[in-house]
From TrEMBL:
It comes from Pseudobutyrivibrio xylanivorans. The keyword Membrane applies. Residues 415-430 have a biased composition (Acidic residues). The chain crosses the membrane at residues 12-30. InterPro entries: c-di-AMP_regulator (IPR053154), YbbR (IPR012505). Residues 411-430 are annotated as: Disordered. The lineage of its organism: Bacteria, Bacillati, Bacillota, Clostridia, Lachnospirales. This is YbbR domain-containing protein.
Length: 430
């Protein structure tokens, strides 16, 4: 039996070996027919490496036209290529290989099936634009936005840090005019701190794109402190007795009330701001007039004027039947008298705003061109911005209040030698 098996295996051995070889080749043909090679195009995003070599050289790069992808052809058997996707390949642009300051060769490599795929040998490039790099420091302005709760005022707004460092393309960094960190106070009634993203603005108030900037901080801590507020009237006290020929009409202030801030306990004790009787002495009045006072010294302890509130208050004292107004008198209507010889004097403004008093009808018909005034320059010497009193002659039915102005006195370029000699002699006699 054994011998029969051996004889069967060795009989016609050459034909049997030939059959095996033929079968093998036949298998190869079948395999290649069923799993042929194919070529497909893939597109991958390019990764830039060693970009710091540009930073060290004071440069930045920008991808030209925003195209940061490359396309390439890959050949592999169908069974392999059908499994591949763009994520199976890497596309690397090494900044060390920058050519002509405009393009970087891109190296394509397979991350999967590396031994079974063939990548086309065509060279791909990433095109870039180089820009000058600069670093600037900007002070951060802390602000608030939103609606403030009643009877509250913002006492202080601070931020940390107060300075931000910006690194980026020079032409873009130079656009920055201000950096603002804004906290929203809507619905907030107690002190708070929040982190906000600072915003960058150009000189026109437009937002500057920061996507190409390297910022020292991405957020800023803004702290807001509140204080209690209260609106109070301004009261004017007077002293003395008005002349029998005059009848007092009214005493008013502008503004009539102010906003004060402080602790609630201190505000509760304040009903008004009183201007003392030493300011207005009725015995000295010859008619309607106005004056200005600083009320900051009249504020009670523990309170102060809210931010943005002026401490200057105008007081209008008018006689019965009169009202107050203002008129802008042109400089050419003002005469400068007794100017020292050899000198020339001129007002420092083209118009002077003066207070006028009278009936509403008289003030309505008053024309600025009809108001004439003069300045006595006897006591003025050579120099700019000297204080002087501008005096007026009253118009029928209208009282014009004298006021203080500034006058500049210079050497008269039209003065003759005789004028100068006379002035010199007068000086010696003095």
């Amino acid at each position: 039996m054994k011998q029969k098996i051996i004889n069967a295996l060795t009989k016609d051995i050459g034909l049997k070996i030939l059959a095996i070889i033929f079968s093998f080749f036949l298998w190869l043909v079948v395999v290649n027919i069923d799993d042929p090679k194919q070529t497909r195009t893939f597109t991958s995003v390019v990764t830039v490496t060693n970009a710091d070599v540009l930073t060290q050289a004071g440069k930045l790069y920008e991808i030209k036209d925003g195209v940061n992808t490359v396309s390439f052809r890959v050949t592999a058997k169908r069974s392999i290529i059908e499994k591949l996707s763009p994520s199976d390949f890497s596309a690397i642009a090494d900044m060390n290989n920058l050519e002509n300051a405009e393009r970087i060769p891109v190296t394509i490599a397979a991350k999967s099936y590396a031994n079974y795929v063939t990548i086309s040998s065509r060279q791909n490039y990433l095109y870039v634009i180089l820009k000058d790099l600069t670093t600037e420091r900007f002070v951060i302005s802390a602000q608030t936005s939103g609606t403030l709760e009643p009877e509250l005022a913002v006492e202080e707004v601070t931020c940390s840090p107060t300075v931000i460092t910006v690194t980026g393309p020079q032409e873009e960094v130079e656009k920055i005019a201000s950096v603002v960190a804004t906290a929203n106070i809507t619905g907030v009634s107690s002190n708070f701190t929040e982190n906000v993203i600072p915003k960058f603005y150009d000189k026109d108030g437009e937002t500057v794109d920061t996507s190409n900037f390297n910022l020292s901080v991405s957020t800023v801590s803004v702290s807001v402190a509140f204080v209690n507020t209260k609106a109070v009237d301004i009261v004017v006290k007077t002293s003395g007795t008005l002349s029998p020929e005059l009848t007092l009409g009214s005493i008013k202030t502008d503004p009539s009330s102010v906003m004060i801030i402080g602790e609630a306990s201190a505000l509760n004790d304040v009903s008004n701001i009183t201007i003392p009787d030493t300011v207005i002495n009725l015995s000295n009045l010859t008619g309607s007039f106005t004056t200005s006072v600083d009320i900051s010294s009249y504020l009670p302890d523990g309170v102060q004027l809210s931010e943005g509130t002026s401490s200057k208050v105008a007081i209008y004292v008018t006689m019965a039947g009169e009202t107050a107004s203002t008129v802008d008198v042109p400089a050419e209507n003002i005469e400068l008298k007794n100017v020292p010889r050899g000198l020339a004097a001129a007002l420092d403004s083209k118009t002077v705003t003066v207070n006028v008093f009278g009936s509403e009808q008289a003030l309505a018909s008053l024309k600025a061109d009809s108001v004439k005034g003069y300045i006595d320059c006897t006591a003025l010497g050579e120099g700019e911005g000297q204080n002087a009193v501008l005096q007026f002659e009253n118009v029928d039915g209208v009282t014009i209040q004298n006021t203080s102005v500034t006058v500049s006195v210079i050497a008269d370029p039209n003065a003759t030698e005789e004028d100068s000699a006379t002035e010199s002699d007068e000086t010696k006699e003095d």
